[in-house]
């Protein structure tokens, strides 16, 4: 049988990936300790079990106390969190893996319960009319506070500080979570950003906060160790709706990244839901952006072994990230290599605490790292 493209090595600049299978970032809500720090009992074995991935991207990790919007998500802003992550990166590296951390600010997808009663931050005071998972269960989101220029400056510094912490914690790189309806995406989109200053109005202005943050992060970690995630056709999720400028905004951002930056990768999502009838949506994200971006393109959402191999074979992407399949198949690389059936995930334990559904899925192959 001919070689599967997913199992061929890939050079992410000086990082040598033994395969093109990436573990996608996934919130798992296991940092249920007062510090919201990753732990030796849970996070270390969870990520180490998956170290045969070409690259692991961690769950979204808040860059500050302000950035949080879900219970028990880990942060990367305190000493205890950095110490917890150090144990994770050391164990993953010892197992032969590579690991980036996803830097996260949820913006308006939060609740005053997380902020001593203060309002969550957002580009504009527009309620996403969604739900936030608070310590007391799901609660309706509120109308957030429009960020002042000072809030924007502080948040950029929070991301820079988080990237510094990521280096100290031993990560191979960072991924900016500029996707899925969270803070940067709220700035990109005209339905969530009604600002009239330098951060709203034109496409260029709506992308400014992202690029200023990227430039600040690039002062503390090389550009080729920074990834950025985008979900251009996100529609009717977390209060995001598309308009005629949505796709042109992502065209602008991705073309600018192509022309002026040398990132580790861009990580794009195919649409989360069927957008074939949605006005202004682009249903084929990899196909649209492959010709516009000459660097490394990672694609995600809905892929399996066959479609993952195909998207690389067709040269529409360089790397493929798998999320839910990685929850229930720690040896996903081995399963693909040996053409074994994959185990179905149990969504009831996606966000619960403790090891059940987290570190309890078994490998069915020897799960060795094979440099092809
Ligand atoms: C339990 C769970 C948690 C997720 N958390 C994150 C996250 O923290 N950051 C992120 O960018 N995407 C997150 N996602 C989205 C996934 O990375 C991925 O885009 C999505 O699940 C589709 O990929 P799949 O079809 O391979 O599962 C999450 C998905 C799941 C299922």
- The H-level CATH homologous superfamily, spelled out, is Aldolase class I
Strand order of the largest sheet: 3-4-5-10-11-12-13-14
The number of helical runs is: 10
What would the CATH topology be?
TIM Barrel
The CA-CA distance between the termini, in Å, is 15 Å
Residue share in β-strands = 15-25%
Low-confidence stretches: none
Shape: globular
Helix content: 25-40%
Instruction: Give a short account of the largest sheet.
Output: 8 strands, parallel, barrel
CATH class: Alpha Beta
From the alpha carbons, calculate the radius of gyration and give it in angstroms: 19 Å
User: Which architecture does the CATH hierarchy give at level 2?
Assistant: Alpha-Beta Barrel
Mean pLDDT: 96
Total E-strand runs:
14
Q: What number of domains?
A: 1
Bound molecules: flavin mononucleotide
The secondary-structure class comes to alpha/beta
- What is the string of SSEs from the N terminus onward? EEEHEHEEEEEHEHHEHEHEHEHH
In short:
It is built from 10 helices and 14 strands. The chain is an alpha/beta fold. It has a single domain (22-322), classed as TIM Barrel (Alpha-Beta Barrel).
Describe it for me?
The structure is a single chain. By secondary structure, this protein is α/β, with parallel strands linked by helices. The protein has one domain: TIM Barrel, CATH 3.20.20. It is built from 10 helices and 14 strands. The chain has an 8-stranded parallel barrel with strand order 3-4-5-10-11-12-13-14. Strands 1-2 form a two-stranded antiparallel ribbon. Helix 6 (246-260) links the parallel strand 11 and strand 12 (265-269). Helix 1 (43-49) packs parallel to helix 2 (79-94), helix 3 (149-168) runs parallel beside helix 5 and helix 5 (203-217) packs parallel to helix 6 (246-260). The longest helix has 20 residues, at 149-168. The radius of gyration is 19 Å and the shape is globular. Flavin mononucleotide is lined by residues 24-27, 59-60, 102, 177, 179-180, 229, 269, 300-303, 322-325, 350.
């Amino acid at each position: 049988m001919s070689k599967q493209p997913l199992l061929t090595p890939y050079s992410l600049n000086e990082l040598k990936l033994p395969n093109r299978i990436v573990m996608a970032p996934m919130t798992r809500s296991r940092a249920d300790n007062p510090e919201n720090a990753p732990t030796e009992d849970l996070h270390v074995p969870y990520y180490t079990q998956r170290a045969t991935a070409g690259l692991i991207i961690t769950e979204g990790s808040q860059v500050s106390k302000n950035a949080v919007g879900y219970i028990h998500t880990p942060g990367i802003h305190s000493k205890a969190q950095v110490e917890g992550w150090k144990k994770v990166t050391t164990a993953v590296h010892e197992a032969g893996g590579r690991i980036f951390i996803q830097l996260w600010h949820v913006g308006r997808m939060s609740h005053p319960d997380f902020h001593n009663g203060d309002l969550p931050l957002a580009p504009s005071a527009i309620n996403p009319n969604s739900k936030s998972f608070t310590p007391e269960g799901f609660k309706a989101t509120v109308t957030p506070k429009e960020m002042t220029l000072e809030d924007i400056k502080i948040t950029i510094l929070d991301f820079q500080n988080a990237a510094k912490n990521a280096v100290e914690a031993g990560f191979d790189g960072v991924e900016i979570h500029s996707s899925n309806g969270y803070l940067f995406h709220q700035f990109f989109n005209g339905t969530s950003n009604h600002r009239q200053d330098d951060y709203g109005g034109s496409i260029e202005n709506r992308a400014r906060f992202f690029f200023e943050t990227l430039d600040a992060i690039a002062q503390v970690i090389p550009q080729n160790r920074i990834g950025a995630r985008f979900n251009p056709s996100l529609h009717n999720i977390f209060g995001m709706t598309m308009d005629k400028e949505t796709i042109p905004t992502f065209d602008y951002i991705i073309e600018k990244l192509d022309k002026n930056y040398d990132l580790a990768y861009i990580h794009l999502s195919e649409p989360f839901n069927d957008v074939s009838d949605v006005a202004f949506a682009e249903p084929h994200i990899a196909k649209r952006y492959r010709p516009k971006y000459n660097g490394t393109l990672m694609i995600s959402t809905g892929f399996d072994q066959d479609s993952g191999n195909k998207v690389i074979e067709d040269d529409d992407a360089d790397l493929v990230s798998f999320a839910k399949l990685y929850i229930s198949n720690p040896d996903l690389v081995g399963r693909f290599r040996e053409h074994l059936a994959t185990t179905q995930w149990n969504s009831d334990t996606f966000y619960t605490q403790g090891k059940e559904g987290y570190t309890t899925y078994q490998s069915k192959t020897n799960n060795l790292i094979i440099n092809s």
